[in-house]
Amino acid sequence: MVPPERRTRKQFLPIAYFTANFAGTVCCGMRHRRARAKGHPNRTSRKRISPFRTFSGDLTIWWFSPRTQRVRDTQQLNQACVQELIHRQLPQGGWPFTTGTTQSAVEPTALALLALPSNLVRERDAAIRLVLHTQNANGSWPAFSGDDGGGSGLTGLALFALNRCGAQGIVGHRAVEWLLRTKGWESHWLWKWKFRTSDRHVRFDPDKFGWPWMPETVSWVVPTAYSLLALKHARGISQQDLAKLRIRRGVEMLYDRICPEGGWNAGNGVVYGFPLAPHADATALALLSLQSEPPNHFITSSLDWLERRAETCFAPWSLAWAILALDTFGRPTALLTDRLSSVVDNAEVNDCAALAVVSLALRRPAGDNAFRVAYET
Amino acid sequence: MKLDRRTLLTASLGLAAGASTAALLNRPKYDVTRRQPRSRVATLRAESYSYNLESILYSGLELFHLDVRGKTVLLKPNLVDYIPRNHINTHPLLVCAAVECFRRLGAKNVLVGEGPGHQRDTELVLLESGFSEQLHQLKVPFVDLNRDELVATPLLATFTGMNFLWLPRTVLEADFVVSMPKVKTHHWSGVTLGMKNMFGVVPGAKYGWPKNILHWKGIQESILDVCATVPVHFVIADAIVAMEGNGPLNGNPRPLNRIVLANDPVAADATCARLMGLDPTRITHIRIGAQFLGNVSTERIDQLADAVCVPTNPFDVVPEFQHLWVTGSAEQDS
């Protein structure tokens, strides 16, 4: 055995590295148990950055490497998010937007359904039953339980979530029919004429239309993105002529309403000749719905904008959507995931929809992205 | 001319039908009257956003002898989006000053609630506009009205033709609602003040981002329906730095160095419009609101603090609203 004073640097470093990682892991585990005992599942783990993370190559011991540690911490945090989601699930199977209310809403329910791992059979089944039960007679989904039956712009999201869970069936066909029937009002000849002649302050082409938030209004980016995701992913549907036409119109609408610097906001790029600023969440959703489109400058400029915006974003909802979209297009997201971990580790996320998207984003380091989908060609 | 029985009968029926139609058309479109005999407005001078705002605001509120003891007070600021360097939102220091003042006045609970109409990520707007930090320091709860529990609420006016709106439970259960607008011009409605600010209680979770149904039903009409249904008990308008031009997002800052307080939303909006150099009687929702929600005439408004000065240069507005500018010195009051 070599005396300690005779050890070379190369021999010493792996031992120090191993010791530091082991100590960190033990501390992290204790902290995790303490936080759990306090009943704060959102605060169960904390990102620990090893002082030796700059070393790599020969010195990396895979099960204690910084990257593995980060992935495991992220996974622990994700498990805490999932536990919190289960805790917030209503007896009927759905989720409300915020804690303390009992009115289940479609957006948090559909996103939570996507976030729940497949081994949580009971919770997923309850959620699926609720989503199926709340479908309107016309095939659409309401915005929340008790809403009127006209339909909402979240129908696409509900259908996409059911589809990802393999629970589509007849319900899905009715939803697809509703989506194919529903258009933004700018597609109507009367309003088209109005927007072309008298009402020209908003720059857009009314021939390019998508889906509205609710019937009798014009198209907006988020419901269009959700509907495109659903239609493109609905098996056996996307190749039908009408579906192909609506998908094409929806994609054209997104390209038409893009902000001059790239990215999307609620739905208008230019008003009164003034360029409007994009939003991270709307941009991410639009990009996710365009993932099967051929690469073009609209997508590239929006990805570039989203990357820049995400660098200064600390809000869980926007940051999580940005991670999902950037990851889908192969852009690096490790640092963003670290930041998201630290943000949600230090503050409670009250919004169930945001918590679900955070959980989906934290699954990304494990190679799982619920919004990266293989489309029919 | 010979008048036979048949002609007489036909003419009578025609007259009766005409009278019925006229009566239906002239029937008031509101089921509520909140107009007081007189309204009170205080225009306070405030040079900048500082921690001194609390004392200025408290001295102004004392003029109104408000009784909020034991009540739940909901402060409804104007938060639309966050764009660096654009004065879009009610300033967080003014909102925090209002929180402290209502606590000093004995309110049981003071909440801050808003449902941004443009940006879906309310948390992002709160973080980046500095609200999160300020509200956290004061330990005051914030309610995202876009995502609150919703209650179907019959409308107390029918200007839009809608029968009911889904409204947040927090708003309906508040005892005292304070509208805290940013004084701004607006490219669709001319101005956005205390009454238009109440669009923020209409939930995005149901009506989307933006709340486009209100645009399609008519912005002026929707303002009247919402304000008839959700009573605005008090207004604290942020006119320290206002916005002119292409509001509500991309206008230019215009310092007025004023805070406007009022116990009547119509009187508050009329006073703010006058401060902007605009004629309130030419703004549809203020003019019609004066029939049942409050007072617009200066003869019915008691000015409790500084007098209202009409600026020599009115606020810049988009071309469609240049008819709102006060012409000459004689302002027409209704």
Descriptive overview:
The complex is a heterodimer of chains A (377) and B (334). Chain A is mainly alpha-helical. Chain A folds into 2 domains: 1-70, no CATH class; 89-366, Glycosyltransferase (Alpha/alpha barrel), CATH 1.50.10. Chain A contains 14 helices and 2 strands; from the N terminus they run H-H-H-H-H-H-H-H-H-E-E-H-H-H-H-H. Chain A has helices at residues 9-37, 66-88, 106-115, 121-133, 155-164, 169-181, 189-197, 221-233, 241-256, 280-289, 297-310, 316-328, 334-346, 352-362; strands spanning 270-271, 274-275. Chain A starts with 8 loop residues before the first helix and ends in a 15-residue tail after the last helix. The model of chain A is unreliable at 1-10 and 24-66 (pLDDT under 50). Chain B has a single domain (33-324), classed as Rossmann fold (3-Layer(aba) Sandwich). Helices cover 31% and strands 21% of the residues of chain B. In chain B, strands 1, 2, 3, 4, 7, 8, 9, 10, 11 and 12 form a 10-stranded mixed sheet that branches. A two-stranded antiparallel ribbon of chain B has the order 5-6. The longest helix of chain B has 22 residues, at 5-26. The chains are: A mainly alpha (377), B alpha/beta (334). Chain A binds chain B through residues 96-98, 101-103, 105, 107, 143-144, 146-147, 152-153, 185, 201, 212-214, 216-218, 220, 222-223, 265-267, 271-272, 274, 276-277, 279-282, 313-318, 351, 353-354, and chain B through 81, 83, 118-121, 123-124, 127-128, 144, 147-150, 152, 166, 169, 187, 205-210, 212-213, 215-216, 246, 249-250, 318.
